[in-house]
Amino acid sequence: MSQLVGSLVAEEGIKRESNNLRGGLAQDLSTAARNMSGHSEHLLKFHGIYAQDDRDVRRERTLAGESLEYIFMIRVAIPGGQLNADQWLTLDRIAGELADGSIRLTTRQAVQFHGVVKFDLRRLAARLHAHAMTSFGACGDVVRNTVMCSSLVSDDAHTHVTALADHLARTFKPTTRAHWEIFVDGERAASIEAPVEQPSEHPSEHEFYGDTYLPRKFKIAIAHPDENCVDVLAQDLGLVAMTHPEWGAGFNVVVGGGLGRSYAQADTFARLATPLTFVTGEELDDLIRAVLTTYRDLGDRTNRRRARLKYVAADMGTEAFYAEIERRYGRPLRAPMAMTLGAADDHLGWRTLSDGRLEVGIRVGAGRVRDDADGVGLRSALRELATRFAVRFLITPQQDIVVSSIASAERGLVEEVLTRHGVRDESRLGNVERTALACPALPTCGQALAESERRLPSLVGDLEQSMARTGLASRRLQLRMTGCPNGCARPAVAEVGVVGRTKNSYDLYLGGGPRGDRLAALHGEKLKLDEIPAVLEPLLERWRDEGDTGESFGDFYHRVLGS
Ligand code: SRM
Ligand code: SF4
Questions:
Q1: Is 153 strand, coil or helix?
Q2: CA of residue 191 to ligand 2 center, whole Å
Q3: Residue 487 alpha carbon to ligand 2 centre in Å
Q4: How many other CB atoms are there within 10 angstroms of residue 3's CB atom?
Q5: Cα–Cα distance, 243 to 225 (Å, whole number)
Q6: What residues are in contact with ligand 1 under a 6 Å CB criterion?
Q7: Is 9-140 in CATH node 3.30.70.2500?
Q8: Which ligand 2 atom sits nearest the alpha carbon of residue 440?
Q9: Would you put residue 91 in left (φ > 0), alpha (ψ -120 to 50) or beta?
């Protein structure tokens, strides 16, 4: 197999020669080795699987001359974060039997399992399929899990949107049968579980993915017009559900956003998506296809760090970029509607749905659903709710979970379950804690430069003390933390973004905000975590003394202190 095709990156050759994502995966999965070959590791990502090693023991094992502790992460794509009770119970069982005991909710409303061993990968994938879920396409150079504001699911004013995340998942998922053949069908023969259904269609690979798929990942979000919980401007393509006075219900479309950066490459940057057009529901697929083929054909396949749509937009210039999309779309693009994004709703606490049923949003904390050592906690609580009540689950883009469709007469019973398992009511959450996000980072993420999820609780505690000391305990502050500048918890648009720089230091970004419509500015470099409160407190005092009524810290910082 060739390493390079012309000046293309090696991954392009691996894709092309993989026979539509098969490569040597089946053979590699069948060996006694605990790890996979390099080429297979790349192809595995298309199947939603990352080869990792436990970085907590990496050094000691290397020094002892032992092999690494090979583990795998599996990401399950869950369009719009919507799950029924049976699916939740399946995820719960997988966490206990095949993973590290936790269900990790992601910032894109998906679910990750960590600590899976190679020999369980097929069994895990087959279980997902048996319950109408899949990890296929959750990672890799394809359209990723589409995120959608949880409140659109039950919003009578936007019924045309309810099923859209599912529709986009079906329409833009690669059609190769590789995943089915390698991970599901082979396993079925050996499985004692109920037989899984064959997919009804057997089409050839998707007309626009071809054999080299996209240059890299492509992300879509569907936003509620009143509140930007999905960070719609951070997406390759964002859809804001709106009603046009002339064209009726449809979507304002924004394109070319993305937050990842690399310290090693100065020409990488975070970029907010810009408004492209307004389309109706019938026009939407064609428009997305035009954007996707623009990216497929013009995206950089010689440098994976710059292989995102945002660099096509920035390098071409907005006018030429839009003209190219329009040419491919084949009709004039309408002007986008004017819009102002609203501050993100955290979807926590109780609310009544239009059909009279109830839902309750529960804070998870960096998305990690698990129990304590005594088997008590959120994981048990959600399992009991899924077993006893006819509820469904919505994962939010803030790594939290909404238990939905609760009969109003059962509210007290649900509250009793949550209380018994030690799940705190949202009214008892701290004002930094309730919206704080963190990426997984160490020990699983191979790209982490510094800790994130494991250090979030102490950083939240420190900042809540800072808020109390400055007399601001009743105000909210949005904190997002990552272990590197890839930006998986979206710190680039946060009021306070803490981004890993080296093992023990972080860069501090300030001045984004809850509307997600502005990039935060670099305020301090290479700070130790325990230095951050002292840097922030004088700024918090100025916000307290000079801020306008109701002005958020991010807006204040940007107005008064931003350059
Ligand atoms: Fe991410 C890579 C975790 C949302 C930008 N991301 C990774 C990997 C797979 C590390 C790797 O490549 O080896 C991380 C897995 C760590 C682990 O141990 O679990 C990882 N990303 C996550 C999650 C789980 C963070 C979370 O706390 O929830 C999110 C999973 C999303 C999902 O369900 O699909 C996650 N990642 C994001 C977001 C936010 C978003 O999409 O809303 C971003 C910024 C937006 C963007 O794409 O620009 C993001 N992740 C990245 C990047 C930088 C991409 C770039 O343009 O350069 C990487 C690096 C890469 O792809 O090579 C990355
Ligand atoms: Fe890993 Fe960096 Fe993403 Fe955190 S931000 S999960 S450290 S890639």
A1: coil
A2: 35
A3: 6
A4: 9
A5: 10
A6: 50, 73, 75, 106-108, 110, 112, 144-145, 219, 231, 234, 258-260, 308, 367, 399, 439-440, 444-447, 486-490
A7: yes
A8: 6
A9: alpha
Which numbered atom of ligand 1 lies nearest the CA of 216?
A: 61
In the structure, what pLDDT confidence band is assigned to residue 562 with cuts at 50, 70 and 90?
confident
Place 195 in a pLDDT band, splitting at 50, 70 and 90.
Answer: very low
Which helix (H) or strand (E) segment is 41 a member of? helix 38-46
66-104 pLDDT, tens digit each: 999 999 999 999 999 999 999 999 999 999 999 999 999
For 85, the 3-state DSSP assignment is helix
Q: Which two tokens stand for residue 36?
A: 């996979």
In this prediction, residue 187 has a pLDDT band, given cuts at 50, 70 and 90, of low
pLDDT digits (tens, 9 = 90+) for 205-254: 667 899 999 999 999 999 999 999 999 999 999 999 999 999 999 999 99
* Strands across the sheet containing 274-280: 147-148, 220-223, 237-244, 248-255, 274-280
Read off the pLDDT band of 204 (50, 70, 90): low
Does residue 11 contact residue 42 with C-beta atoms inside 8 Å? yes
Per the prediction, the chain carries an average pLDDT of 93
> Which amino acid is present at 223?
A
CATH annotation of 349-428: 3.90.480.10
Nearest CA to ligand 1 atom 20: 488
Sign of the four-CA dihedral 232, 238, 243, 244: positive
Residue 37 pairs in a beta bridge with none
Which pTM does this prediction carry? Answer: 0.95
Tell me, what amino acid is at 198?
Q
How many A from CA of 236 to the centre of ligand 1?
14
Sheet order of strands, 349-352 included:
82-84, 392-395, 401-406, 358-362, 349-352
Give the start-to-end residue ranges of the domains of the chain: 9-140, 349-428, 433-561
For residue 345, what pLDDT is reported?
95
| CB 212 near ligand 2, within 6 Å | no
Segment 247-273, tens digit of pLDDT: 999 999 999 999 999 999 999 999 999
Whether residue 262 contacts residue 487, with contact meaning beta carbons closer than 8 Å, is answered with no
- Does any ligand 2 atom lie closer than 6 A to the CB of residue 439? yes
Question: 433-561: which CATH topology?
Answer: Sulfite Reductase Hemoprotein; domain 1 (3.30.413)
Task: Answer yes or no: is pLDDT of 185 > 90.
Answer: no
Q: At what angle do helices 318-329 and 309-316 cross, to 10 degrees?
A: 110
Cα distance between residue 521 and residue 77, in whole Å: 32
Q: Taking 70 as the threshold, does the pLDDT of residue 9 lie above it?
A: yes
Residues 6+ apart with CB under 8 A from 560: 542, 546
- CB neighbour burial string for 191-218, b if at least 16 within 10 angstroms, e if fewer: beeeebeeeeeeeebbeebeebbbbbbb
Tell me, what's the pLDDT at 202? 39
